[in-house]
């Protein structure tokens, strides 16, 4: 395999990826096993993992293209009270369209997992490259320009990343930078009446001084600070603020105490001093960065794309089998993210239950109508579903999730729960889509 960094600190082209990749847990030898996900993706090797998710390489079975699939464990999300974070991350990523931001293609879900299907960045993490040695000043400038282009785009749309670091910056097959991991990002709706954000987040070595002060902060300004730390790391090969004692490191950050190595040019030193300014009110802004002489060298402005394509449209036309739903919307209104299997509920309040099925809407309605007629209930067609009325009332709506799958939402209220449990559920349970078996243990 060729060296990643040449003698002048420039990146070498990536080696070709192997045609086949081992499945999670596979031995990697011989004819490797693979996992078929939703009959759409062939899940391959593990790319990375964190506390709440794992990321796999995968192949789109329709196009043969490589994708990255982030697998999120729902139980861990619920235990960590991170449901809102996941919903926000999906909402943000599906909206952002910039050449230097990893693109989210679609979101899939089962009973226990959520799958983010994303653009595959073949070059891997920028962090893995810089640990091999510092970059040349020109190369550092190139990546910093791409980073600022992406972050400026986010800020113009009211999105603040809040966890920028080399581990969250990827490289594609052409060594172009891609910003990823919006799990800690914030939007303007989260700004309090004082005009500031207050949630403490970020990675210690990259966190801005005002976050340490715990008095609120401007999301755009803390992103600029983190970008400055990244620029320093790329150019110097090590962190500007670092100490084995975390409190000592925080004091250095709070005071903006750092030293530039001798190989950093005077122009870059000046530029870094404006970014790593501990006073957020005098710190350089993104707009000011764009006109700085050091930054402008060789910079080509990127025209922000305006398209907002996504695999599942928020509002699409009716089809013969019903309206297509966005997976984000399904996750948003599903209690506990439970998309597979009927939920057992007690009490007499109105109840909503959901499940995914590979059966056609016509077949599902036919089965429900048969049971309803046996129980002497009145059946009325209503919109995309039916209404059942007897000793209790049931509304059944069916919406298409993918070409193969539909989501069935059942709302019921009143008495007669035993009839529902004994008569309807056994018939409906047989229709539940059981894809989880194919990905058990991953």
What does the model show?
It contains 13 helices and 16 strands. It starts with 34 loop residues before the first strand and ends in a 13-residue tail after the last helix. Mean pLDDT is 76; it is low at 1-33, 306-349 and 435-442. The protein has 442 residues and is of the alpha+beta class. Helix 4 packs antiparallel against helix 6 (219-236) and helix 12 packs antiparallel against helix 13 (417-429). It folds into three domains: 35-119, Phosphorylase Kinase, domain 1 (2-Layer Sandwich); 124-296, Orthogonal Bundle (Transferase(Phosphotransferase), domain 1), CATH 1.10.510; 327-439, TATA-Binding Protein (2-Layer Sandwich). It has helices at residues 74-79, 83-95, 126-130, 137-156, 209-213, 219-236, 246-255, 266-275, 286-289, 293-296, 327-333, 361-374, 417-429, and strands at 35-37, 41-49, 53-60, 66-73, 104-109, 113-119, 124-125, 159-160, 169-171, 177-179, 186-187, 351-357, 378-382, 385-389, 392-400, 406-414. Strand 13 and strand 14 (385-389) form a beta hairpin. The strands form four sheets. A six-stranded antiparallel sheet has the order 1-2-3-4-6-5. The chain has a five-stranded antiparallel sheet with strand order 12-16-15-14-13, covered by helices on one side. A three-stranded antiparallel sheet has the order 7-9-10. Helices cover 29% and strands 20% of the residues.
């Amino acid at each position: 395999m060729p060296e990643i960094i040449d003698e002048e600190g420039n990146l070498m082209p990536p080696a070709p990826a192997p045609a086949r990749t081992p499945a999670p847990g596979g031995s990697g030898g011989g004819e490797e096993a693979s996992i078929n996900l939703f009959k759409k993706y062939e899940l391959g090797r593990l790319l990375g993992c964190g506390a709440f998710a794992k990321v796999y390489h995968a192949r789109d079975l329709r196009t043969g293209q490589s994708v990255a699939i982030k697998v999120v464990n729902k139980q861990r999300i619920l235990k960590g009270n991170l449901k809102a974070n996941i919903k926000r991350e999906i909402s943000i990523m599906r909206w952002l369209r910039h050449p230097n931001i990893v693109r989210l293609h679609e979101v899939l879900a089962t009973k226990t997992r959520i799958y983010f299907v994303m653009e595959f960045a073949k070059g891997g993490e920028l962090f893995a490259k810089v640990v091999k040695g510092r970059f040349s000043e020109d190369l550092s400038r190139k990546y910093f320009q791409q980073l600022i282009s992406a972050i400026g785009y986010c800020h113009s749309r009211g999105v603040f990343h809040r966890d920028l670091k080399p581990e969250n910056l990827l490289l594609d097959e052409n060594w172009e930078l891609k910003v990823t991991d919006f799990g800690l990002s914030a939007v303007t709706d989260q700004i309090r009446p004082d005009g500031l954000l207050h949630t403490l987040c970020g990675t210690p070595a990259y966190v801005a001084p005002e976050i340490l002060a715990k008095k609120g902060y401007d999301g755009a300004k803390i992103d600029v600070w983190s970008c400055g730390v990244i620029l320093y790391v790329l150019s110097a090969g090590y962190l500007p603020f670092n100490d084995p004692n975390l409190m000592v490191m925080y004091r250095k950050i709070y005071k903006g105490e750092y030293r530039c190595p001798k190989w950093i040019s005077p122009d870059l030193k000046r530029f870094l001093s404006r970014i790593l300014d501990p006073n957020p009110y005098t710190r350089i802004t993104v707009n000011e960065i764009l006109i700085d002489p050091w930054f402008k060298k060789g910079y080509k402005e990127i025209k922000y794309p305006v398209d907002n394509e996504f695999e599942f449209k928020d509002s699409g036309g009716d089809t013969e089998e019903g309206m297509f739903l966005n997976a984000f919307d399904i996750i948003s209104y599903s209690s506990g993210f439970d998309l597979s299997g009927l939920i057992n509920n007690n009490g007499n309040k109105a109840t909503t239950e959901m499940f995914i099925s590979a059966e056609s809407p016509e077949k599902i309605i036919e089965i429900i109508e048969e049971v309803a007629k046996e129980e002497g209930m009145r059946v009325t067609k209503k919109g995309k579903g039916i209404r059942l009325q007897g000793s209790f009332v049931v509304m059944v709506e069916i919406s298409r999730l993918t070409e193969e799958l539909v989501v069935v939402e059942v709302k019921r209220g009143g008495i007669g729960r035993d009839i529902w449990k004994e008569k309807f559920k056994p018939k409906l349970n047989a229709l539940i889509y059981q894809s989880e078996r194919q990905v058990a243990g991953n």
